[in-house]
Amino acid sequence: MDPLINVGRGLLGILAFIGIAWCFSSNRRAIPWRLVGTGIALQIVFGILVLRVDAVRIAIDAVGTFFVRILDFNEAGSRFLFGDLVDASKAWGFLFAFKVLPTIIFFSALTSLLFYLGILQRVVFAFAWVMTKTMKLSGAESLNASANIFLGQTESPLLIRPYLAGLTRSELMAVMVGGLATIAGAVMVAYIGMLGGDDRESQLMFAKHLLTASVMSAPAALLTAKILEPQTEEVNRNLEVPRERIGANALEAVANGTTDGLRLAVNVGAMLLVFTAMIAFVNWILSAGFGGWTGFNAWIAESTGGRYAEFSLQYIFGLLFAPLAWLMGIDHQLLLAGQIIGEKTILNEFYAYGTLAGMKNSGMLSDPRAQVILTYALCGFSNIASVGIQVGGIGALAPNQRATLAQLGFRALIGGSIACFLTACVASMLI
What we know:
Order of helices and strands: HHHHHHHHHHHHHHHHHH
Structural class: mainly alpha
Oligomer: single chain
Helix content: over 70%
Number of strands: 0
Distance between the termini: 10 Å
């Protein structure tokens, strides 16, 4: 496709998604359009630096290589514990249970150690400083958004725990959208393994794109949050990272991280088991019921060239979300792309990345450009279940804010999704 057409489609998508956010704004007259413009500019600058500037690309490739090496380190531990069950020739279920989920546990422990040593806080502070100076935001929301590049939606608020109780409604929206628009480092490593398979070059490629998506989504989350809930009150612009550490020493930090990672891995496995079973149940009702009685199953199979054999949730997701996929710059196999985006929004991104990996490996989704754009679009926790996790997790840290968190939940979900889609639009302009 012509680069100018890519840029035009990307700009159209950006305008469309900002327009959707505008429709859900609580105070349209107070929207800080200068901040919105700065946020989009930051996204584009980050994208150009990572994808087009050799020096930065080499640095990101080095970080990506580190993440890929983590897969090797994790495999050593997994092989010690599970033996041949992590063999690449095994079925996907074996590999997921004994190779992907353990990656979450290992990286969670590593992240906890880096947090204890103070290394992670310094990196977070650097990103927060850039966003505070360019977007003129409060220190707390900038720190949280930057932490979300590396940490999860319930871990990042720990960095700003002293400020949570006094945050304004707009700042809370920024905290929630920031958590929903990015993913934790632990699951990022798992996605690198899922999408890249055992091919080192493919792993490095997806590592680069997932890292880029996490960085670009931080300013996207902030600008989207400020459209949905504009700031009209004075805020604390001090930028200071609390010195709280996870554990009394390095050993306890690793142990705490391992425990947290185990909880996350079990939670991911359990949710995927339940969601997969529920989808099978609903699909049985749709296909055996309405689809079978009306002959709709045969019509769908014929109209989609056999890609969808019957009336199903996947087909419904494809129809509903295909227009969004087009706005992100995807031209081919829109129904499949829409299905994946729908699975991410209604279920979770882990399920959607699994579908993307399966379609990629089987050749069903053969367009490499669509695969990369979807990698950006899915790179966030923006789904229905995550809103409940945020209300419970952040509410436990600041009980006085629980009611406000619940009130903001639905629009925060929209904001997190839009932020991911904006990042996909910018990526489509540059790929």
